[in-house]
Amino acid sequence: MTTESFRPEKKITTFYPPQRTLMGPGPSDTHPRVLSAMARPTLGHLDPVFTEMMEELKGLLRYVFQTTNLMTFPVSGPGSVGMEMCFVNMIVPGDKVVVCRNGVFGGRMIENVERCGGIPLVVEDKWGDPVDPQKVEDMLKKNPDAKIVAFVHAETSTGVQSDARTIAQIARKHDCLTIMDTVTSLGGTPVYMDAWDIDAIYSGSQKCLSCPPGLSPVSFSERVVDLVRNRTEKVHSWFMDISLLLGYWGASRTYHHTAPTNSLYGLHESLVILYEEGLERSWARHRRNHEALKAGLKTLGIEYVVAEPYRLPQLNSVYVPAGVDEKEVRRRLLDSYNLEIGAGLGDFAGKIWRFGLMGNSSKLENVVFCLDALEHVLIDMGVKVNRGTASSAAHQYYATNPVLA
């Protein structure tokens, strides 16, 4: 047998992706400075120059998480790996864990608890509603031996934000540790890890941080570090054992795994960009663009899934108008305008669209472009809307609500 037998049927050449505008639930548009940073010369993951950059990266992440935790670093893997790292380190078989589910990603937390041998105590809320703190309180009263409370701060599948401070206060009152998902919230809406007394937190690089997927920023309180050090059995994952990772991300720089150096360059640059802008200004920018998008969508008769006090500015979930083929709209936006928006997941599949305004994708030109494109597609599909009103409403909002000084 010759090598010809294994050649692909068609000729394969260098891959050149199309230039899209990413306004779905993630990833967001990568900032050009981040792409440039990732193209720089590759260094060894134990190179002293690279380890200096690692220290800066940890400091920048502490700023973004608003924490002083020493155990703050990016995991080599997507947000799902950061999630699993929290659960696999903190749970031993038999532990009772209160898990709040009001969307897809709360469900993934339950799966992690079960795979770690824990016992999930599920607090259920309707999709599109925030977690009800009273239900958490009631569950903990019924289960005084619970060890952990886990919840999603910003539920990507629905666009709802829950009251992290109150949930964490309830957990602390009942002597429970907390795990919080900030994959969609970090950088786009306030996150105060220390002020809210959160024990374990994880996020993703590809949303409001405007970096490609593949890294998961995490942070652990000293309570979690002590818990892991005092475990009587090994963590059920070698790669995600934070007691081993302490050696690589700590002062000693002992070999653990080959870190994705160029991806870490990109995350470093994305955090520098966020630091230059300032967290408060980033949060205000996401809010301003959300309000402009909302004003435009209203003229098209499009309604939001989430009640206004709980809406995520960076993840806008809206109901598909009656009689409209939601998949066809998304196809036309992608094919004709190179514009990506998100579909519904789980209970919301086929019922909603998700418009992302995350990181570098959260800007005036994207809001106006998206509204114009959506309006044109709807008109072409026979939906009666007033041409030009959507972008006009957005411009009107921008004109009367200047950028935060």
TrEMBL record:
In-chain residues carrying the UniProt-annotated modification N6-(pyridoxal phosphate)lysine:
K207
> What's the protein here called?
Aminotransferase class-V
Where substrate binds, per the record, is at R354
Taxonomic placement: Bacteria, Pseudomonadati, Pseudomonadota, Betaproteobacteria, Nitrosomonadales
Q: Which GO terms describe its biological process?
A: glycine biosynthetic process, by transamination of glyoxylate
* Keyword terms: Aminotransferase, Pyridoxal phosphate, Transferase
Q: Where is the Aminotransferase class V domain?
A: 42-344
Entries under InterPro entries matching the protein: Aminotrans_V_dom, Aminotrans_V_PyrdxlP_BS, PyrdxlP-dep_Trfase, PyrdxlP-dep_Trfase_major, PyrdxlP-dep_Trfase_small, SP_NH2Trfase/AEP_transaminase
Annotated transmembrane regions: none
PROSITE patterns xref list: AA_TRANSFER_CLASS_5
| Cofactor(s) needed for function | pyridoxal 5'-phosphate
Instruction: Give one GO term, molecular function aspect.
Output: L-serine-pyruvate transaminase activity
PANTHER family linked? ALANINE--GLYOXYLATE AMINOTRANSFERASE (PTHR21152:SF40), AMINOTRANSFERASE CLASS V (PTHR21152)
Q: Which family does it belong to?
A: Belongs to the class-V pyridoxal-phosphate-dependent aminotransferase family.
